Amino acid sequence: MKITLSVIKADVGSIGGHIAPSRRLLETVSNHVTRHGAGLIIDKYLSHTGDDIAILLTHRQGTASARIHKLAWDAFLAGTEVAREQGLYGAGQDLLKDSFSGNVKGMGPAVAEMEFEERPSEPFLFFAADKTDPGAFNLPLYLAFADVMNTPGLILSPNMAKGFRFVVMDVNHTEGDRVIELVVPEQIYDLAALLRDPERYVVESVWSRATGEQAAVAATSRLHNIAGKYTGKDDPVMLVRVQMNFPATGEVLAPYAHGHFVAGGMRGSHQLPLMPVALNTGTSYFDGPPIVSCAAFAEHNGRLTEALDTFAHPFWNTVRDRIAEKTLEMRRQGFVGAAMLPMSELEYTGIMEKLKALESQFKVRRDTVQNDLRELAAH
Ligand code: 13P
Ligand code: 13P
Ligand code: MG
Ligand code: MG
Q: pTM for the full model?
């Protein structure tokens, strides 16, 4: 029997700026899903990562189901009402369209869904990140599914020896989904050439070449491509099935020990390392640092076990300390050069108006140039 996992997340308001949703807001969203999801969903899990609320659902409606998407959209609408009542910041922030049109993709919320034939044991990981964008998962997915230094399973497990197929999306293309498929290990350098640019090329899904089964799916929406201006970061979600023909849980988690630099933090305009944190953690320093949480589940007939909080383990305390140091090092660089995102990303912020105004004040010193030319001609 096929089961669908859907995770739909949105920021519909938070306490104290962009820190975290209120308890009442979370309860409102959760209660809405319980009440209106009866008979439609099998199970659910609600959590927040920073100011983003993620609704994880199991059901048999397949991916991109209008009923499932509407359930989540309406739950976020109900949440927005409470956010307004409580005076939360950014109430309804990620609901960019006025009316629901069948699928939340392109309307603001981030979505990651996959449908599959359940294995006898179905372990999977649900990742959510705040103050960053979908490209944040590029490096961790590359390391987990294509790099033997990270994933010994690529040489130790016969099930993984055939490698994986990556589907990568060009998120700058707004007229439709522009995708490329690359297989590893054969095309590993081609894959790396694209993934080095995480603001443009984003891993959408990963598939086993041995069995054709889907291993991972990640959200790919870029809000500024929907809204045409900066409205908040496209804080992404991701689902990864683990073990058997896929990497082990520990191989999928290991890349997060690097604290790689991602786009995010203050005003969505900075480069900061991604910090793995416990479930339901808010943000703090410099509207960040960018954070990622991961809940591990087992699932059977669509029923979820309790969530295990993978990054709550003591091992990650040392990692967090190191990433906090790395964050502070980068912040010493303030607004200059590598500390901020490239101009192509900042063009959705207010800096463009400032630069335009300054543009008219620039002058070329014609006299000096002409004098130099005259001098040159005289020689
Ligand atoms: P167990 O023997 O505990 O199942 O672990 C197998 C494994 O490969 C873990 O990486
Ligand atoms: P969010 O996208 O998480 O709302 O953050 C917005 C922001 O600009 C924080 O500085
Ligand atoms: Mg916010
Ligand atoms: Mg957020």
A: 0.95
